[in-house]
């Protein structure tokens, strides 16, 4: 990823930052895919949820990169948003791009959930 892995950070924290950063990128790429595809893919609520998911993942990664202790709360919110995004994208899972988004969201949710446990 684009950030420098700080050696002083816990490896699980670094992994979570990577998963959040990856999910952020995948959600943004999937928004572009959905808008180009049209139809149900371009539903405003669907696009809005993916945009919020991308934003939440970026905020979560940023909070961890900054060393903010509140990152556990932010990661908790990220878990919820990522799971909801994956669930909604599952309706279109026959599309490989949507499956890629589902996988990124679920991986990010799993990592962030581990961060909420401290």
TrEMBL record:
<dbReference type="Pfam" id="PF03860">
    <property type="entry name" value="Csp"/>
</dbReference>
<protein>
    <submittedName>
        <fullName>Four-helix bundle copper-binding protein</fullName>
    </submittedName>
</protein>
<dbReference type="InterPro" id="IPR044543">
    <property type="entry name" value="YHJQ-like"/>
</dbReference>
<dbReference type="InterPro" id="IPR005560">
    <property type="entry name" value="Csp_YhjQ"/>
</dbReference>
């Amino acid at each position: 990823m684009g950030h420098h892995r700080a050696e002083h950070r816990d490896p699980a924290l670094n992994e979570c930052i990577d998963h959040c950063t990856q999910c952020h990128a995948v959600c943004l790429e999937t928004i572009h895919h959905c808008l180009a595809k049209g139809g149900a893919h371009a539903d405003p609520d669907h696009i809005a949820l993916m945009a919020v998911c991308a934003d939440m993942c970026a905020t979560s990664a940023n909070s961890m990169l900054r060393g903010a202790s509140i990152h556990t709360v932010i990661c908790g919110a990220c878990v919820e948003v990522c799971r909801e995004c994956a669930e909604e994208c599952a309706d279109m899972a026959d599309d490989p791009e949507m499956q890629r988004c589902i996988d990124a969201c679920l991986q990010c949710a799993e990592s962030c959930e581990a961060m909420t446990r401290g």
